[in-house]
Amino acid sequence: GFMTRHERKVFDDLKSPHLKYWVPFVWFGNLASKARKEGRIRDSVDLQTLMNEMNKYRSWCSLLFGYDWVGIPLVYTQVVTLAVYTFFFACLIGRQFLDTDQGYQGHDLDIYIPIFTLLQFFFYAGWLKV
């Protein structure tokens, strides 16, 4: 709904090995220059303000494209995976219930199912996979 059928056809027929986010910006620049020549934009300062805002928006799109272009290095995912599993192991050992009043020899750990620690692990592991 942002383009006419003709504009969509021109956009689709344009061959580019990368994203074509810049094409509407070129169209906008040409239309703004044409509007200035025809007198619909009365002042060159107004045209310059329009073009500056358009260039700022285009640079934001370019920055976003750059983030998409460069992937996250593998070492980051490995560090995060190691951190999640180490945190879970520490929580599994550290959150076990130990009742010292019972007089256990050597204060062995009680064995029970840590429900909330497991839920926390499932959430973290799920986020990790995403």
From TrEMBL:
Regions that span the bilayer: 82-98, 110-127
Membrane topology: Multi-pass membrane protein
Predominant location category: membrane
Zinc-finger keyword on record: no
InterPro entries, per the entry: Bestrophin, Bestrophin-like
Compartments, record wording: Cell membrane; Membrane
Catalyzed reactions per annotation: chloride(in) = chloride(out)
A cellular component term, taken from the record's GO annotations: plasma membrane
Pfam families: Bestrophin
Superkingdom of the organism of origin: Eukaryota
Keywords on record: Cell membrane, Chloride, Chloride channel, Ion channel, Ion transport, Membrane, Transmembrane, Transmembrane helix, Transport
Protein purpose: Forms chloride channels.
Family: Belongs to the anion channel-forming bestrophin (TC 1.A.46) family. Calcium-sensitive chloride channel subfamily.
Name by which UniProt lists this protein: Bestrophin homolog
Species assigned in the record: Gymnorhina tibicen
